[in-house]
Every structure is written in C-alpha cells, then in structure tokens.
Design a protein that fits this description.
By secondary structure, this protein is an alpha/beta fold. The chain has helices at 11-23, 50-54, 109-122, 146-159, 170-179, 193-200, 216-228, 256-263, 272-276, 279-292, 318-334; strands spanning 2-5, 27-32, 37-42, 59-63, 83-84, 91-92, 98-102, 126-128, 162-166, 182-185, 206-209, 234-238, 268-270, 296-300. It folds into two domains: 2-63, Alpha-Beta Plaits (2-Layer Sandwich), CATH 3.30.70.1140; 83-352, Aldolase class I (TIM Barrel, Alpha-Beta Barrel), CATH 3.20.20.70. α3 (109-122) packs parallel to α11 and α10 (279-292) packs parallel to α11. It is globular, with a radius of gyration of 21 Å. Bound molecules: phosphoenolpyruvate and manganese (II) ion. Manganese (II) ion is lined by residues 104, 274, 300, 310-311. The site of phosphoenolpyruvate has 9 residues, from loops.
C-alpha cells in the first residue's frame, strides 16, 4: 500500500500519517519526491484498512501497489533518486554521471595512491578498491582487510575521492560502514538476504551488484530488502551475467538499464570490467553503457595490471581511463548528461600540503 500525500501537505501531516501507520503495526517509509511525498507501507501481509488513512489531513489517496517490489518501484516514487555526498559535488543519479574507478584490490598504500591520483586527475569522483575479496579460490589473495580500509580513508583525505568498497559478510560490513562512503554488496551476495537487511540498517548508500544469474525481478527484490530496512539510498549495478558465451568472462546485459529505469527510480550503473573480463573490451562497453543511459560506470584501473593481485587482465591503464573519460563525456553530451571533468592538482583536498 502507498499513501500519496497532497503536494502542499505539511511535515506535521506527513508525520501524523507515518505515526498512524506505525501504530497499526506496519512500517512507514516516507519518500519525498519533486511534486509530493509518498509513504510506502510495508510489513502488511494482507490489506491495510485504507479508510483509516484516507480521511487523514494532507492525504491525497491511498493506493495498492501490485508489484512485488514496492519501495524500489516508480509507483512509489516517480522521479529519479539522486544520492548526494554532503560537502562534495559528487552525486549518483541525475544528470552528471557517477564514475567509480580504482583497482580490483587494494594491494599497498603506494599502489592505491598511484592509481587514485591518476583517476582523480581524469575526473573520477569515487575511488573503488577491495579490502575483502570474494575469490573463487581460497588460495588466491583475499584482501588486506582493515588495513586496506585505512589506506582508502587516506585516499579520501588526500584526493577528495569518495570511497566504495565491498562488504563480503556481516563482520566486514561493520568496518566497511565505518570507513567507506558507499557500501558495495557484490554479485555473489546479491541474494544473501541477512546481509542485505544488515546493510539496510546502515546509514550509508549501498551499491548492489546484480547476481551472476539474477533476473530483473530478483535484482529489484534484493534492492527491496535493503530499502525495507529504511535505507533508501540504493544504487544498482549491472556487471554481466553467466551465459554460454565464452569470448568474455560474463555477458554484459546492457538492456537491463532501460528495463530498470522503466520500473524503478533507483540509479543504475554499469561495470564493463567484470562484465567483460578483458581489458580491450572495457572501453567499447563503457561507451555503450553511457549511450544506453546508465547513470555511471565502475571501472577497474591499475598502473601495473600485469602485477595486480586480482583481475589484472580486465584492469585498464590510467591513460586508457583518461581516454575513456573523454570519449564517454562526448557520448553523454548527446543525452544531455555530463561526465565530471579532470581536476587540477591544487584543487584536490589537502594535496598541496603533501
Ligand atoms: C568487484 O567489484 O571487485 C567484484 C568482486 O565484483 P562482482 O561482485 O561484480 O564480481
Ligand atoms: Mn575485480
């Protein structure tokens, strides 16, 4: 169920409706939009007695949401969700594309700093790097853990980049939520429902990657798990799915971008690095992702990819990343969108001091 408030409803009227919903034993999710606020109701197995709510002051209408996902749906919130990062110009969703770049794994302070400087210069506003790695082999590099989180916190201070990193389990989630600006839930955990709920109780944006074999509905329902716990800042990410095709690591399903945008107000990014697994395919698929209308990109960049401890074969060189930014920026312009410009060194927070 959904309570649509009148355009001029006051904060008190909205609060009173939320209180009434909670007093009936349900959960209220007020979602302010450009025109009006809608209040999603969850926790109800059957019908909520709508008469109770329809008569309240400030209420325009009470409607049933027929889709299985509710808070994720455009029925609840018509306009696109834009996630902002206070104190910075970075955002995810909206006209400016969110560009997240960095190595697959944080390997050392030197490695992280070398790559962060290059991606910041090329215009990225977000730095990615794994501290906890979900590896196929238990003998492969598993990540530096908290040490990597500390290095990324230093990267944020030095270059003004927002930090995106994955929480692979509950234990990692606690630390990631403390250090990072965006909590990543990886493809292998897309249906780890207890982890999704725990991330939904954090008050940091969550980047949810599509599962290796997830349908659109399963993907949106996973996002619903996070939102149902009261965290409305969810970012979706297409990263390729498993198919019979073996010329790439995964098959990047770009058609999910307009499919998501039709059904949901949440931003959707594309990761052509994991989507293809091959360095020479990252740039063309990044261009295609921007052309299809993605809200941003996740790109693995390494200054010495042949020495990378994970995903070297799909990591592009910093020079290739600069070219990617330039080409994507020209494609974005066709769609009346933009890619952040490269920065001057002296503009980066604290850089001059080092
Ligand atoms: C990653 O971003 O490094 C990663 C492991 O991604 P995915 O969960 O999409 O495989
Ligand atoms: Mn990787």
């Amino acid at each position: 169920m959904l309570v649509v408030m009148k355009a001029l409803a006051t904060q008190e009227e909205i609060q009173a409706v939320c209180d009434r919903i909670e007093s009936l034993g349900f959960r209220a999710h007020p979602l302010p939009g450009a025109q009006r606020t809608a209040i999603g109701i969850t926790g109800n197995q059957g019908e909520v007695d709508r008469g109770n709510l329809e008569e309240m002051s400030g209420v325009a209408e009470v409607i049933r949401v027929s889709k299985p996902y509710k808070l994720v749906s455009r029925d609840v919130k018509e306009d696109d969700t834009v996630i902002r990062f206070p104190g910075t110009s970075a955002s995810i969703g909206g006209a400016s594309l969110a560009i997240i770049a960095g190595p697959c794994s944080i390997e050392s302070r030197e490695q992280a700093f070398a790559i962060a400087e290059q991606v910041a210069l090329a215009g990225a506003q977000f730095f990615r790097g794994g501290a906890y790695k979900p590896r196929t082999s238990p003998y492969a590099f598993q990540g530096l853990g908290e040490e990597a989180l500390k290095i990324m916190a230093e990267v944020r201070d030095r270059f003004g980049l927002r930090i995106v990193t994955e929480a692979i389990d509950h234990e990692a989630l606690e630390l990631v939520a403390e250090y990072a600006d965006v909590i990543q839930i990886g493809a292998r955990n897309m249906q780890n429902f207890s982890l999704l709920k725990a991330a939904g109780r954090k008050r940091k944006p969550v980047l949810l990657k599509r599962g290796l074999a997830a349908t659109l509905d399963e993907f949106l329902m996973a996002a619903e798990y996070i939102m149902s716990e009261g965290n409305y800042e969810v970012i979706l990410c297409e990263r390729g799915v498993r198919t019979f095709a073996d010329h790439t690591r995964n098959t990047l399903d770009l058609s999910i971008v307009p499919a998501v945008q039709r059904l949901s107000h949440l931003p959707i990014l594309v990761d052509p690095s994991h989507g293809t697994g091959k360095r020479n395919k990252v740039l063309p698929l990044a261009r295609a992702a921007v052309a299809v209308g993605a809200d941003g990109l996740i790109i693995e960049v390494h200054h010495q990819p042949d020495r990378a401890l994970s995903d070297g074969a799909q990591s592009i060189y910093p020079e290739q990343f600069a070219q990617l930014m330039d080409e994507c920026s020209r494609i974005a312009a066709v769609l009346h969108r933009s890619v952040p410009h490269g920065i001057q060194l002296e503009q980066t927070a604290g850089l001059a001091a080092h």
